Amino acid sequence: MRLPFSIPDHDRRLIPDGRLAGIMPWIIAIMLFLTALSAATAVRLGYSVQANSSGLARQATVQLLEPDPAARATDQKRIAAWLERFPGVSAVRAVPESEARQLLEPWIGSAVEDAGIPVPALIDIAFASPPDNAQLRALRIQLVRQTSNARVDTHSSWIAPLLSFLRTILWIALSVLLLLLVATAATVALSVRAALNTHRSTIEIMHMMGSTDLQVARLFQRRIALDSLFGGGLGLSAAILVLVLVGQRFSALGSGLLAGESFPIIGWLLLALIPLAVTGLAMLMARWTVLSALKRML
Amino acid sequence: MQSVAEFDNVGLRYGTDAETLSDISFKLFPGSFYFLTGPSGAGKTSLLKLLYLAHRPSRGAIHMFGQDIVTMPRARLPGFRRRIGVVFQDFRLVPHLSAFDNIALPLRIAGIAERDLLGPVGEMLSWIGLTERADARPATLSGGEQQRVAIARAVIGRPELLVADEPTGNVDPDMAVRLLQLFAALNRLGTTVVVATHDIHLLQEIEGAQMVRLDKGRLSDPTGSLKYPPRPLVLRS
Ligand SMILES: Nc1ncnc2c1ncn2[C@@H]1O[C@H](COP(=O)(O)OP(=O)(O)O)[C@@H](O)[C@H]1O
Ligand SMILES: [Mg+2]
Q1: Is the CB of B228 under 6 A from ligand 1?
Q2: Is the ipTM of this structure higher than 0.90?
Q3: How far is the CA of B168 from the centre of ligand 2 (A)?
């Protein structure tokens, strides 16, 4: 098959841009801009949901509330060593006291040390896979045998509402994306139909002169492929511009939940696929519309 | 001799109306010139549409170039259409194409390379006296000029059969005669020509032309009232 980019001049003259065909690339550009934005939102949110649930759900923090600083420090070492041997635990990190203070600072101020308020010793642990309730219960029971003043906080308990919020937005983004794809398909179908009506007499004449159905269909296909590639490229470029700008704002925000990781490569590939898919769809529709119109002629 | 077209007891019905054409039987021979006459509404255009493969008959058998085209699969018809040139009553030029592109259309459809069609199309343009108007769109041409472009387009591919529906309908008598001479020239090169007309005077212009008369959808014998009596048309019993 000839590439849609190489339409001979005389074929171009045969199916020139009608008034409707002239608007079509711009409408496709707008539809594609919106589609790409919603797709990017969906990909970004999906990525965050996945990263947060798989990463944070595996993590837990053990707090040692021993008031005596010296005992607390030896406990931290001992418990950390004990945790490393605990089944299912893949990583253990004793959080240095200075770091723990920093974490608490926003809540109780920088005078923590001066006031002599004890800061719990923290041990971050990561499980090989997100722990279930039985595993956590076993950990808690056995931990109490090691030291009476220990508490286990799973991150999933506080991340859960946020994740469900992100998931809700993700579903909304996916629904919007689906609606936009349907609307884009409808736009393409309408413009193909309009182009067919505009050029119906040309098609009839070609048919009577011995054009095969495929010859006529190919002519339309290529014309419409060019239109939608142009519109699609334009819409996608605009969307990418917006995404890059928004991405920069998010990094500036410094929120660990949405920024941090950059937009995944697979997301960019997906975005690039959208105009190609729309072009493919437009070509298929053009082909189908022309062929079924020709089938009604002898 | 193999016939260009052979109709056997052909009937044509549009929808559920009464038959527009009934019991049509004839043979067209290679190199002959036929006039199809009859009053308006007699079914001339309908008969030509069967000839240029725009319709299938409701009944009867039609052979074109020796092949049964009634049962022929649709996909094979384009090849046959390329052997037939058609001058439509309303010209049917592509309005946004120049005279040159309109005339070149059948060659391009047949897949002739661009460099190979410049010569023939140029020759054709000069033959119909429109070399100067090669880039003109149909709307800027006079009725007679459009008609000449339509005829040039019909004959550029050297069709084996040329079908013309009232080709002299909207030109003055002088032009009508000149156009007919164009057909005659093509006929001498071997093309079978069928011209539908209700203008009985035209019939005198082509020596040796045969007449087929349609009346109310049925063929009647040639009248024999021509200045140059036609060779007997082979009417099948
Ligand atoms: N597409 C059509 N649908 C229905 N009736 C038609 C159609 N074309 C022609 N007719 C009818 O068939 C009859 C013959 O028409 P036509 O073949 O155009 O005659 P002519 O060319 O001799 O004037 C007329 O009564 C016309 O109304
Ligand atoms: Mg007629």
Answers
A1: no
A2: no
A3: 12
